[in-house]
Amino acid sequence: MLMRTDPFREIDRLAEQFLGTTARPAVMHMDAYRDGDFFYAAFDLPGVEPESIDCTVERNVLTVRAERRRPTDDKVELVAAERPMGVFTRQLFLSDTVDADNLEAGYENGVLTLRIPVAERAKPRRVPVVSNGNGRKQINA
Predict the structure, then answer these.
(1) What are phi and psi of 71, to 5 degrees?
(2) How would you classify residue 86: left for phi > 0, otherwise alpha for psi between -120 and 50, otherwise beta?
(3) Rounded to two decimals, what is the model's pTM?
(4) Which residues pair with 113 in a beta bridge?
(5) CA-CA distance, 39 to 115, in Å (whole number)?
(6) CB atoms closer than 10 angstroms to residue 121
(7) Where is the SHSP domain (predicted)?
(8) Region 115-140: what's the mean pLDDT?
């Protein structure tokens, strides 16, 4: 048996490890940011049907699960299969500074966007400063 040397085999192995394969899809890419009284998390999920997306919050762990499927029609002949298929999962650990009970999710143009309000107890608040008349200041919080 002859074996050919493939100089790109190690590069392919590393790419599969970081980017995933069709059997083990890569991680869903995400951006997260805060804008005023809300945190946002945007996940790239192109080609995913909205009904296959599942968002759950248990304790302080947010889990996003989505599935991308290939056409299953018997008449379809697959010529190339380069896009990762299967189930994608990502977990985020939420801090106590967010109100996970009022999380909102929307899916548009292949992007799942989660809107998570900042908890009232985590918002900045003004502390009044009062004087007791003898030049000393007393802070009531």
Answers:
(1) -60, 135
(2) left
(3) 0.67
(4) 42, 106
(5) 6
(6) 9
(7) 21-133
(8) 76
